[in-house]
Amino acid sequence: MKKEIRICGFGGQGVILAGFIIGKAASVFMNYNAVQSQSYGPEARGGAARSEVIISDEKIGYPRPTSVDLLVAMSQESFDTYRNDLRDDTVIVVDPDLVKKHEIGQPVYKIHAQRIAEELGNKIVTNIVMVGAATSIFKLLDPEAVRKAVLDSVPSRFKELNLKAFEKGLEAGKNALKGL
Amino acid sequence: MRYKRDPKKIREVLGDKVQFVLGDMACVYGGILAGCSFFGGYPITPASEIAEGMARLLPRVGGTYIQMEDEIGSIAAVIGASWGGAKAMTATSGPGFSLMMENYGFAVMTETPCVIVNIQRTGPSTGQPTLGAQGDMMQARWGTHGDFEAIALAPSNVQECLDFTIEAFNLSEKYRNPVCVMADGEIGHLRERITIPDEKDLKIINRVEATIDKEKFIPFGVSQTRKSKVPDFPVFGTGYHTYVTGLTHNEKGFPATDKQKDHEKLVKRITSKISDDIDKIVKVEETHLDDADIAFVTYGASARPAETAMELARKKGVKVGMLRLKIVWPFPEKVIYKLGKKVDKIIVPEMNLGQIVHPVKEAVSGNCEVVSAPKIGGEMHLPHELLPYLGVK
To answer: What is the pLDDT of residues A54-100, one digit of tens each?
Structure first.
């Protein structure tokens, strides 16, 4: 088993943290091999940023994706930039409010992550909603492992907010699975 | 007061035994585990996370972090700290490594144990700050002037960033020579799982400090207490008054700059203390070499795509193996010579325009074909880019 995941958005949305959480859940809490790499522009905010995770039950040689199994997109620019190497069966998850032009002739799971985060009181947790949704949709990782990784990776005063965001994301993911 | 390494405290500060961390951070952990108590540095991408990590963690184990005015000051501070008895390190990238070259030589000449981590990025000059490269491999070997032996390790994964930083300290303390950890932006900025070794599994070497009668002490000759070309170390402040200079010096440490014999004796000792031990220092990893017709010789990040290319090619029936240099300097000449007699072709993928391919060619001595597979611009080879070198389409 080898799965390649790409999470993209604009700088400042927390796409790198999202990748870190998924990688940590897989490698520390589920004992898979995982590598997480990232690339971003020199800007602290804005620009297209991406975080990539490879999860495998074998040793991972080349540490960057060559054929993406799951794409999570949180901005139009990054979706346009990083969707060039998708397969027909790549699972695609987008926030339709942030990626308005997402009809590319293959199924797309739509998660209103930013809206959900705003309803929770802070759009800063949009990334964690997406992590939850991707966990439900992609079904590779045990939600409990991802939950532990979320709680391990955020400052203590924001644990409750992030946990709520994750649970809402899990639920939104399940609903999206039913809907598609 | 001298720093005392406290294994329990170190593990309390480093946290969980199993973590998912950046290569840079693993270098920090390795340094602290080795007993590093001084970091003098100047942040530079992609090595900044090492300075950040050290600034955060080193004071908590009782060590000292100093941000210097630049990289020249950084390594100077590290050398000074080492003479004060501390295990000391710095971390940098290309432009900073260039600035350190003069004092790198000073550390060699004064036999100062210290560790320099270079998270290589592309050059020349400021190049591509956020992207990885392997363009400083020859600089680690020849970058400072004069005759010397270099010791340099090249981690290919995040666990090795931790393990090799410990090993770098061990080699540095044992041979009293600066040791470079030649990582790169790809591995430094990669996150993988690491396991922090238990204390019982850890091998820690400390320099042998001077214990002989102060009157009889000779600071820059062979050891007076062991059979070794490495002299016992007179920690500043312990009463072993020692003159430390980068000028050619006699065994007592005083400048002796006008006699051929004095210079030859000194430099032959400080080079042969390492070259005599090459077989003990060399560390390589062999994969699928038993039946191989073609071999990759790799190190650092470029081993990763090579490994994948090797597996892809073997599935197609091409007998490819890999020799990975964990320690690049001193160069494992004998190992490469034997490999050259065994295989038809050696391919050397590097994230530069061809550096380590040259000593490989020299060691192979014409016994097989040696091909350079260079790639520059801040990206690793894609595995399929290496397949044509193996005759696989």
So the answer is: 999 999 999 999 999 999 999 999 999 888 889 999 999 999 999 99
B48 Cβ contact list (under 8 Å, min separation 6): B24
A contact test, residue of B131, B191, B194 with most A CBs within 10 A: B191
User: Is residue A132 in some structural domain?
Assistant: no
Taking an 8 Å cut-off on Cβ atoms, the answer to whether A27 and B189 are in contact is no
Measured in angstroms, the CA of A159 and the nearest CA of chain B are apart by 19
Residue B200 class from Cβ within 10 Å (0-12 exposed, 13-18 middle, 19+ buried)?
exposed
Candidates A15, A54, A62, A148, partner chain B, best to mutate (most B CBs within 10 A): A62
Judged by CB atoms closer than 8 Å, whether chains meet at A35 and B191 is answered as: yes
Alpha helix segments (H runs only) across B134-286: 137-142, 158-175, 185-188, 260-275, 278-281
Question: What's the topology of domain B7-201?
Answer: Rossmann fold (3.40.50)
Q: Cβ A62–B130 below 8 Å, yes or no?
A: no
Determine the distance in angstroms separating the CA of A63 from the nearest CA of chain B, rounded to an integer.
Answer: 7
Do residues A69 and A94 make contact, with C-beta atoms less than 8 angstroms apart?
no
Domain range spanning residue A58?
A: 2-112+140-154
Are A62 and B189 an interchain contact pair (Cβ–Cβ within 8 Å)? no
Whether B14 shows a pLDDT value over 90: the answer reads: yes
**How high does pLDDT run on average in chain A?**
94
The strand pair at A33-39 and A46-56 is best described as: antiparallel
CATH 3.40.630.30 holds for B285-390: no
Instruction: Give me the interface pTM, i.e. the ipTM.
Output: 0.95
CB of B41 within 8 A of CB of B93? no
A148, part of any domain: yes
